[in-house]
Design goal:
Structural class: alpha+beta
Bound molecules: uridine-diphosphate-N-acetylglucosamine, phosphoenolpyruvate
Oligomer: single chain
Radius of gyration: 22 Å
Shape: globular
Distance between the termini: 25 Å
Strand order of the largest sheet: 21-22-1-23
Number of helices: 14
CATH topology of the largest domain: UDP-n-acetylglucosamine1-carboxyvinyl-transferase, Chain
Largest sheet: 4 strands, mixed
Helix content: 25-40%
Length: 440
């Protein structure tokens, strides 16, 4: 049977089914952990060295924004993964940070650092993945709790430091927003004020920032109900602190789904075991054995014994729950497994409408119960088609689906995938996938 490949008008990734993935691959540093660590380094207004910085384009954009706003960055020749962040002796007052800041969601992490530098921040509305309405009102409530004045207009928002607050700043988040939790932590650092934050987000990305701050003298406690942070009693200035960006749990999870989809057996190195526990739990439920060691995840796809049990994959902000960014690649995998499965992402309400129509275009039979919840029965064998990575994780899911679909899957939107991963197709290639980039 011959397969028609759609005409290529801009760079696409072409994927064909091949042999089961095998071998070993090391994940890069995590984009979503690196972004707040870069911002935390900037907020300290002292040199900080970051190791294992990924080359994903969102992280590079944040570093560009920092340089534009008045920080220097240095890296050893030939080693882009090590970055020294340091404030300039005389920093220019940053003007509008413009288009680049509106191309990523995480430009919001710069607000506390800009306040530290010049008492105010003016930024355009953030961008990033188009996965539904992505508000910022909880960030603004955080800044107002610190006495800041917030103004918003059609183009963006401005936060201006008010009179310094005295004593502990105390507030409770209405839901466990990761962005608002980090905003509160970094604003407390800049204000040198104790913080007591109710209902914090306790994702590994937040804990990574708290560990980094603890290492430079900020006593932090992260409990399920309350997070507290206290300014250091004395400043530990002697050495340049070194913070290591943790390995990318989502990249590891995506690769795990890819290996499992092909029935392969492979090792994924560089990821902290507990960070992928919720995803590994889902793989076990489907009958895919894994070994989860402290810095390595092994997928034993060859020994899979599909259970046919229904999988309920519900993205949540609750501590220890399934990170919303695991849900799409897991959905791409579960389509090929027996059972009636229920998937939901109430956190990013536009994600399913990006992904599901494209899986349907590949022949997937998926019932959308609502805009955030869907059900399907597997196993389903998809057929390659021309599809689009409309957001980072839709791209990951379509890659996983393409590895077992009949014929060729061509995936556009390569830039979206690069926002989150320096080279995800290259890692799949290392594991033996039949995948290439096609540039017209
Ligand atoms: C750069 C980064 O780390 N992005 C991650 C972050 O996004 P994001 O910054 O959107 O995550 P939050 O946890 O802060 O927000 C969760 C949800 O609440 C909404 N919200 C948040 C704050 C606010 O003031 N108002 C509001 O409506 C957001 O739009 C989102 O829909 O967490 C998401 C949920 O785990 C992940 O999918 C993203 O990959
Ligand atoms: C949604 C994501 O990124 P961002 O929040 O930066 O748009 C993501 O990493 O999947």
């Amino acid at each position: 049977m011959s397969t028609r490949v759609p005409a290529v008008t801009s760079q696409v990734i072409a994927i064909r089914p091949g042999r089961p993935l095998a071998g070993a691959v090391t994940v890069d540093g995590s984009k979503n952990a690196a972004l707040p660590l870069v911002a935390a380094a900037a907020a300290l207004l002292r040199p900080v060295r970051l190791d294992n910085v990924p080359a994903s384009s969102d992280v590079q954009t944040l570093l560009d924004l920092l340089r534009h706003a008045g920080w220097n960055t240095e890296h050893p020749v030939g080693d882009d993964h090590t970055v020294l962040v340091l404030p300039r002796e005389t920093a220019p007052a940053p003007d509008g940070l413009g288009e680049a800041a509106s191309s990523i969601r995480a430009s919001y992490y710069l607000v506390p650092s800009l306040i530290a530098l010049c008492g105010r921040a003016r930024l355009p509305w953030p961008g990033g993945c188009r996965i539904g309405d992505r508000g910022m009102e909880q960030h603004f409530k955080v800044y107002e709790a610190f006495g800041d004045r917030v103004r918003v207009d059609d183009n963006g928002y401005a936060v201006e430091a008010g009179k310094a607050v005295r004593g502990t700043v105390s507030l409770v988040l209405p839901f466990r927003s990761r962005g608002a939790t980090i905003a509160a932590v970094l604003r407390a650092v800049v204000a040198s004020t104790p913080l007591r934050l109710g209902q914090p987000n306790l994702s590994p990305e937040v804990l990574g920032v708290l560990n980094a701050l603890t290492a430079v003298g900020y006593p932090c406690r992260a409990g399920d109900r309350v997070l507290t942070l206290v300014p250091p009693s004395s400043v530990l200035e002697e050495d340049v602190p070194v913070w290591k960006v943790p390995g990318d749990k989502i990249e590891a999870g995506t690769l795990a789904c890819a290996v499992a989809a092909t029935g392969g057996t492979a090792r994924i190195d560089g990821v902290h075991g507990p960070d992928v526990t919720p995803l590994v739990g889902a793989l076990h439920r489907m009958g895919i054995p894994t070994t989860n060691e402290p810095e390595t995840l092994v997928i034993h796809g060859r020994d899979t014994q599909p259970t046919g049990r229904p999988l309920r994959a519900m993205a949540t902000l609750a501590p220890g729950g399934l990170d919303a960014d695991f849900e799409p690649p897991l959905l791409g995998l579960a389509l090929g497994f027996p059972g009636t499965h229920l998937f939901s992402d109430p956190i990013n309400p536009g994600r399913h409408s990006n992904l599901i129509p494209q899986l349907v275009r590949m022949g997937g039979e998926i019932t959308e119960l609502s805009s955030t919840e869907c059900r399907f029965t597997g196993p389903q064998r998809l057929t390659g088609a021309g599809v689009e990575a409309t957001d980072i994780r839709t791209g990951s899911a379509l890659m996983v689906a393409g590895l077992t679909a009949r014929g060729v899957t061509t995936l556009g939107g390569v830039d979206q995938i690069r926002r989150g991963h320096a080279d995800l197709p290259g890692k799949l290639l290392t594991l033996g996938a039949d995948i290439c980039e096609v540039t017209p």
